């Protein structure tokens, strides 16, 4: 038994050394366009700063104790304008990131909830984000644009994908050897403006491409992460509500079972005692001029949506007491 | 639950630990629950089919020795055959049969459109059906005493390492092992882990990386020149070998962790120098099953010469059909049957030719020529196996023979990279080197005789390759579709 244990320990040490040399080797071998072998083993590897996430995650620490926190995918960071909530004297922060699924949201919340300490979380739940079983796309975005910490490691395990660990190693090695994270500014398109607080304002109306009709299939894993998010917020005495912002009519028609999926989500969230407002089923469709592509609102669409949302929440008394008012009291 | 998934990484160690913690009398139950859970993680309701096969064949197996006459025994066997093959036919071949009938009738001037059943093929049905049939057939033949233990029989039918893609085990080899008390053995555990690692390397580093090339090329063969189709075909021959033998290695390794010995299913098939030898090396559990339960009952080689040839051809034709409900698989089987028949009929002439050649050229020249011919013809058959339709296969075949210029090959033209291509080639090279040095190891205790540092280096290299070069898009194993 002792001999086998010693052998196992020796082998583990040997593997660790082998891996260290191996990673160094494949990180050093350039392939094409100055990319290394290590980088090329990961499909879809991106350098930091390719999305607004780098700016968002840099700013988080500047927004302690907000009234409202926005979560979700690009629908969130392009769909909720903190300035509109500021007009009603609500402080807010938009923690939406590219492709964020409930799995990713849960770990982001774990990381930032003590700092942000929101009274209300408004989660933009585009049903398509529930189709991903692993949240890898969003994981890549978060890892590449922020520093390592235990929640990132937990998120990596949660993806159940070896690519997550490979991505982490590559990302951190590149920053160690090549450019530090602070040197990246964050690239935006010419029609985009980053508004402090995590919102990306988009002007102009793009082409609404017609989509191939398809059925959506949501993953039960992602639904169970919604439950975990609700429980985490409950422990912090924060409330949450879910919304789906308007989509172009042609997009809605392309998702053949959209209504069924929305109702399924609604039932699930109702059973958990939280509100769900799908604007596509509650209100008349927005004109195409309110969108800059097949699923994102432009500045006009965001304004209309945020006004409609605020009116709805005020009417239903779902907005929290402002921290400012509480302090005054 | 796939062998190359995160879930299996949790499942297997858990079963392993519980297995050795539990007293022997509870282990079969643990393995049965684990096996049913493993299968139900795909589609829970299809467990009913396994349960049906289990109960039918258990009770028929019990009744056969008690039957008063040979006719009565035959009737019971017929129930087992009809029951199991009926399920297989319904789920796997019904739509193909209906479509073929419709086409045949339309050729005769009758327009009939049968409605499609569109049943989802239960994973592993082709494998566990054959495994249960071998039980009832062996009991009928008097080769096996039926078991009175339903639990162990159910485990024999559904044992998770080999349930969905083999090896197809014989009751005389597997069933009695569940009665033996397995003691934890470090050597067997390490051996099993090494085999799992080797299987994983073949699957995620080689097979799934090759699949990227093969899928692009074979999905639209009419859009590619002979060069790409030839490379695609060669890559497919290694893809299917690594995919299937990788699966078998993980299955055998997983069983070995539990002290269960499964039969070797692949033995360097591309080293074969004739088709008879190829089928002694490729999917051994299936080829021996067809030999014992189709070829020999047809008469084998104990009939007249022509009937013998017919038996050989029919066996391979049926084997082709077993692989899938598509004419391409039938053609694949027929080609193998034809090559085997050709080998048998030309045996004398080939022997004479070899003897004449050995007088003027070294022996290895004949070996090389034989190997090259068999490998080329095997690749030809793989064209039909992989192509989506017979007409696609014809496009591939004709262009491979006419429109080839290897210097014009550029993987970037099909959306892939030179790095992917180089990694594929390195993977195949490592595969062949390891297989060559391990060729004499019957039990498959990989690298056991190497010096310590070399052994650890090879294992570290495999682990590193899986961790950093593995393709983990969780593609299913090819033989799951059968």
Largest interface: A-B, 21 and 19 residues
Q: Which sheet architecture does the biggest sheet of chain A show?
A: 5 strands, parallel
Name the overall outline of chain A: globular
Summarize model confidence as the mean pLDDT of chain B: 90
- Per DSSP, the total helix count of chain A is 15
**Oligomeric form:** heterodimer
**What is the average per-residue confidence, as pLDDT of chain A, rounded to a whole number?**
90
Low-confidence stretches of chain B: none
Outline the low-pLDDT stretches of chain A: none
Proportion of beta-strand residues of chain A:
5-15%
Strand content of chain B: under 5%
Tell me the structural class of chain B. mainly alpha
Radius of gyration of chain B equals: 23 Å
In total, the number of strands of chain A is: 7
SSE string of chain A, helices as H and strands as E: HHHEHHEHEHHHEEHEHHEHHH
User: What general outline of chain B do the C-alpha atoms trace?
Assistant: globular
The structural class of chain A is: alpha/beta
Through-space gap between termini of chain A:
69 Å
State the distance separating the first and last CA atoms of chain B. 17 Å
Order of helices and strands of chain B: HHHHHHHHHHHHHHHHHHH
